[in-house]
Amino acid sequence: MPAMSVSEKFKKVFLDDKYSVGQERVALRNVGLIDPENIYDYIYNARGYQALAEVLTDMKPEDVVEAVKKSGLRGRGGAGFPTGMKWEFTAKEKSLEKYVVCNADEGDPGAFMDRSAIEGDPHSILEGMLIGGYAVGAQKGIVYIRAEYPLAVERLEKAFCAARKEGFLGENILGSDFSFDVEIRLGAGAFVCGEETALINSIEGKRGMPRPRPPFPASNGVFGKPTLVNNVETWANIGAIFLDGADSFAALGTEKSKGTKVFALAGKINNTGLFEVPMGTTLKEIVYEIGGGIPNGKKLKSVQTGGPSGGCLTEKFLETKIDYESLAAAGSIMGSGGMIVIDEDSCMVNIAKYFLEFTKSESCGKCVPCREGTTRIYETLTRITEGQGEEGDIEKLELLGEIIKKSSLCGLGQSAPNPLLSSIKNFRKEYEEHIYLKRCRAKVCEKLVDYVINDNCVGCGACRRVCPATAIDGTVKAKHYIYSAKCIKCARCFKTCKFNAVVKETGLPE
Amino acid sequence: MIKVYINDKPYDVVEGITIMQAAAMAGYKIPSLCYHPRLSIYGGCRVCIVEVEGVKNFAASCSYPIKDGMKIRTNTEAVRKARKEIVELILDNHPQDCNICKRNGICELQNLAREVGVEERMFAGERKRYDKDDASPCVENNQEKCVLCGRCVRMCAEIQKIRAIDFVNRGIKTRVSPAFDMSFKDSVCSCCGQCITVCPTAALTEKDYIKETFEVLNDKSKIKVAQIAPSVRAAIGEFFGLKPGKNWEKETAASLKKLGFDYVFDTQFSADLTIVEEASEFLDRLKGNGALPMITSCSSAWMKAMEQFYSDLIPNVSTCRSPMSMLSSIIKTYFAKKINVDPKNIASVAFMCCVAKKYEAAREELLIDGMRTTDYSLTTRELGRMLKSSGINLPDIKGEEFDSPLGQSSGAATIFGVTGGVMEAALRTAYELATGKTLIDIEMTQARGFEGVKEGKIDVDGTEVRFAVVHGLGNAAKILDVVRKDKNKYHFIEIMACPGGCIGGGGQPYTAVNGQTFDINLLKLRAQALYDSDKSKIIRKSHENPDIKKLYDEFLGTPLGEKAHKLLHTHYKPHFPKGI
User: Fold this and answer.
1) CB contact under 8 A, B171 and A211
2) CB 3.0–4.6 Å: which of A288, A401, A473, A508 could bond A417 by disulfide?
3) What is the CATH number of domain A348-437?
4) CATH tag, A449-505
């Protein structure tokens, strides 16, 4: 078939789509272009299983590992560990039994990169796993996927069946000595099971709690056997590396972060959704070109990257190139690729509280810093947003955040304080306003604003009737008035008024 | 040998050990909470963190393996601060009721807080609130005090292999519970109490019958009778801060008198009785009257586990009651008649090393004419607390003999408390009953020691009797799987539910700090106390105990006879709690 790069093909199909600006498709190269339930579409129209065939016929396992190392691919699950090294560690372990695991327990709220990759192109994941299995000497693959993705599970199952029928799975694949089969394990909805050791425990039928590392899964994984765990997106990249060559893969991206990355863009942004860009694209390009800017002419306040345990970056980081190192240097993480745009109407203390609420409820409960610490952070932030903040709270939070980061058992705990620490670092003034002035600049925290009635008031009396503190006075058809001394800031008047006459005021200078 | 640097000083250490072990060799004891030397590595408390050069975060020293050239710092300012903070976080979610807590003064969390220098609490937030589960006759679960170190869970799953408890829920709501939110009472818990011995706080404790016992002691209308198990006397001294390894038999007997008991009898007396019955039963089975191998039945937790998990082996289990129940039966029949008192007016209180004996005491199979024979069964710890609260300092007490007629015992009965002891005692008697010859070499080394599974054989007049001895329910599972496949491999099997036998019972005193409760050296010392006592006795075989002979002559008739059957034997039935 004529050689057309996938990205070209993609652009051809979605020519008029504003999303395609600046995008480069590697991991999602076939998504939307082939019929995911038809193995022949994958084989004939997407060079499917060609990489596997080449690997099995022309390459020794160590060459495969070498090629992955050369490509510079790093783990797309979030931590960015060099994939080739991970493969090498597992390949070097001496064991008759080894496992290859695909981590499809995508749990970040609003993230659906893995889901799209599996639903749109299940065979690429399988092909990646087959190549990985061959490289490290594994006979068994396991896809650990959350049960909340029924379509993805169904398509994976169909793909496995078709591949088995066509001889891509099972004994002596494509006439080689390599035998490999895959099974699916469903996750029961625990966020922490996306952490590789917790995932392994869950596969083994144990409670999904992380294990101390070392030993790493490469030497002691599923049922104590050497295990290679990679994220869906990582697996999806493997085929491309062997189809187009490690060099062409490494040509994309920055010096230390090669290839592309899929992001899920959400929040206060015009174009929400998935996009794949080369590493090194700036935040500005993402927000204003691909994302199409902020709606309603509002100002950008922050971009939160890396899912619930990522950091909140400010406008001054807009020129930051997206790669593992730059994001870390800016105080955030790549994570699995969540990206939430926050505008000036959002309160950063409240945002931090929101993310901590998530991590505290998803903490597995095993290690003390994460289990107890995230709850204490959440409680303190709640107190601050309700006007009960005290002097010293910020310092306490910073200290606790650092300790959770440095002493937690797994990645969940180690990164859980990120939204807190980065928002304190970048928006300390807002915290101070909340604590000392009892004011919320974004007017989000109900207890930290004053409620006043403006000239829109028609004197309907609805606010007066709902006020539980009899703080509102006024006669029918005349402008009403709120006695701030009596107001308990329940915001019922604000929610009741149909004329936008009750407004929040902070008295803070712009 | 590899070289590591601990706090900037080089040390040569063997490869394959953890930072914590290497630091211990270098003379640094790193504080810890969830770590227990005999359980798997958990890495959850994060108290044992250290700094390792080149590692971004703190490393948990309990799990982190050392590497050549590794530079470890165990006491930097950052580490000390973090440790303190972590313990504070635990305390923030722990009831502040130390002075009314059962573990006050012997609590690992208290010690740890002191060790890391906690002076104030950081966050005054929500504290967990749970109802106490005190429905079980044996174990009380107070989750408000749980620090989620997971030692109990690992103990139950790894050593005992019962898996009665695990973590439920997530995050701050995590707690330890039997399956399906059941009470311990309804769960598969074998009541062995080993979870209690490894619990660092008072989250898991024995169900306490101290109040009831004091009430009885103050009841003038009752005749108060006490009995104490062999291993209680080998460990009670530890409760008073004394070194393990001494038998406090006479002092304990005297102390119980001081507490107000009218008669203090010895469970060792009925251990002799058990042996006479059990050895007779064994010889009977050996002649073809009953299933082989015969498995001992003195361990109450094993009884409960057997009825739940091995009910197919019920025919193989000896029908003998445990020594505690035998003595209680005799107290409320033979002894009651002897002193001419209505058995209903006798309060029989047993002091045991065991938590499961509380369950056994309540078993309806053991009622005699509808009457409970053991009114209360208390642990060594409860005895210690009773003595302390009565101002009786055991080491200061002048020893006294047990009361007659249920106070004299042989050396065979003494070693009942150690794994292998019942087997040794039973074979001493069985050999002589079967052959009529005198057994010269009575110390059976094959049955002694602390290996999980011990095997041995003895020649009884040309018949080779093969026996096995196991302690810990996990080891029992191993041997029982063998038995299920091959009924002919052994003739006689001793099973003790607790590691080490009764001396390692779930009711034994807590020792020192950091999980040394379940320490092999401690068990050896306790065992030595009993073996020494055996050696010092003139009568070392159960059937030679003159009071036992008298009991049969005056009251019971013959071993396995009708009266013995009613008072000294029992029966079992399968139980299937939810979750099996």
Assistant:
1) no
2) A401
3) 1.20.1440.230
4) 3.30.70.20
